[in-house]
Design brief:
The chain has 416 residues and is α+β, with helices and mostly antiparallel strands. The chain contains seven helices and 16 strands.
């Protein structure tokens, strides 16, 4: 049977010969405190290595964060997707819209070039195609384009993006400024012209017969058809030409035509009849003479003339917007193609022949205004009221007849 002993006595018996000696470091610390010196424990090697590793980790994390902020953003990504960067759209963070400019093409060693590049903002050289590189303004001012990627400053690019608007739509909405696009200047235009024409004289007179000088004269229905060609010399001046067929006609009122056997008719008619005497009607009855062998024909004397017109005109632009206003001046060469003289009575038209004093070539001075209405970049509608005064029209006696005609020319023109 085991003997029970007191627990305190057991420890006393077993530990009575135990001796504990303090560590040398303890005695050194005690001695230092007694002498007023504080000893610094040495830093362990593992602590030094762990500190260096922590510093390297911080530097590496900062580098990765910086480069991740400059990542490539695809053009077709939508704002509002999970992979889009967070954008601060607060009022205090609003920035100036992107301003586009052509890239500098000066020499690298030119001081003016360097100063301009330092002051210029980031740029779009041309409209982005596939991808956009977003970077800082300093880098964007150095590089203009890298293959199919285009440089733009990040802070300028993210201004006030609408959550429902794609990045592609946003870039297309950026206004383009200070970029001189090389567009093709359309200098030529061509189109048909048609005009009603009114023919008359500035003074009383008759080129057919001097006795009809005081008779009333009126314009008959006439027409001009042709093609007009226009060339742009500068923004203000144009030269235009073409070819027209002009039909002119006028009537001399109250004329009596008598046919006689005498060939001395004393007028400017070429006729296959033996002779024609033209006299004004006085008192409502026709004159008669001993040489008459047929009753006279009374009515209006009509002269119809046809020309081929070759105009050369200068046009000066006064106003050029949606509607353009121009002054026109020049001259035309008129080539006679046909003329006829006839008496128009109440019941019949009698051909008397043609005038023999018209020159085959004569000229006109032209002046007028020109109105253009732009339908598109290539098409415009043209309306031009023109006054044309003829000279060198007749050879010999013209009976003080000074002809002119007025036309309202219009047509649809094509620019190329």
């Amino acid at each position: 049977m085991l003997e029970r002993k007191n627990i305190d006595r057991v420890f006393q018996e077993n530990l009575k010969d135990l001796e504990i000696y303090p560590n040398k470091r303890v005695w050194n610390n005690i001695e230092g405190e007694l002498n007023g010196e504080v000893s610094t424990p040495p830093i362990a090697l593992w602590k030094k290595l762990s500190g260096i590793a922590m510093i390297l980790a911080v530097i590496l994390s900062a580098g990765l964060f910086y480069f991740n902020n400059n990542e490539v953003i695809p053009v077709n990504s939508q704002v509002g997707e999970t992979n889009k960067p967070e954008i601060d759209q607060s009022p205090n963070n609003r920035i100036t819209p992107v301003v586009l400019r052509p890239e500098l093409e000066l020499a690298e060693n030119d001081q003016a070039t360097q100063e301009a590049r330092e002051t210029e903002k980031s740029i779009f050289v041309k409209k982005p195609n596939n991808k956009v590189i977003i970077t800082t303004n300093d880098i964007a001012s150095i590089y203009s384009t890298i293959e199919n990627k285009y440089i733009v400053d990040k802070s300028d690019f993210v201004q006030q993006l609408d959550e429902s608007e794609s990045i592609t739509a946003r870039m297309e909405s950026i206004p383009v400024k200070n970029i001189k696009t090389s567009t093709i200047d359309k200098k030529w235009s061509v189109g048909p012209t048609v005009a009603p024409v009114f023919y008359n004289s500035l003074q009383n007179g008759s080129p057919i017969d001097g006795s009809l000088a005081n008779n009333t004269k009126t314009s008959d229905n006439a027409l001009s058809l042709g093609v007009k060609v226009n060339y742009k010399v500068s923004n203000k001046f144009f030269i235009q030409s073409g070819v027209n067929k002009v039909e002119l006609a006028y009537n001399t009122k109250n004329v009596n035509a008598l046919i006689t056997s005498s060939k001395n008719s004393f007028n400017n008619l070429n006729t296959d009849k033996s002779g024609v005497i033209l006299t004004p009607i006085r008192g409502g009855s026709s004159n008669s003479g001993s040489e008459l062998n047929k009753s006279g024909i009374s009515g209006d004397l009509n002269q119809s003339i046809e020309y081929y017109e070759l105009p050369i005109e200068m046009k000066y632009s006064l106003y050029d917007k949606k509607i353009g206003l121009n002054l026109v001046g020049g001259f035309s060469t008129l080539i006679l193609s046909n003329n006829s003289v006839s008496i128009i009575s109440d019941s019949d038209i009698t051909d008397l022949g043609d005038a023999n004093n018209l020159n085959d070539f004569n000229f006109s001075g032209n002046v007028g205004v020109d109105l253009d209405y732009k339908i598109s970049k290539s098409w415009y509608l043209n309306v031009a009221p023109m006054f044309k005064y003829q000279f060198n029209t007749y050879s010999g006696d013209s009976g003080n007849f000074r002809p002119y005609y007025f036309g309202l020319y219009s047509g649809l023109n094509y620019k190329f």
